Amino acid sequence: MGSLLDLWTTRYDEMKAIIVAIPSLAEQTTIANFLDRKTAQIDQAISIKEKQ
């Protein structure tokens, strides 16, 4: 956690120890498709509200 407190003084040795989870390409695609559908639904709802 200390490496996140002051990013400007964080050294490469500290940064390379941070673990980042990266989903598989298939999972990334599934997530992107889900977000595309939900965004379209939100856009449609906004459009309906603006017409009211």
From TrEMBL:
<protein>
    <recommendedName>
        <fullName>Type I restriction modification DNA specificity domain-containing protein</fullName>
    </recommendedName>
</protein>
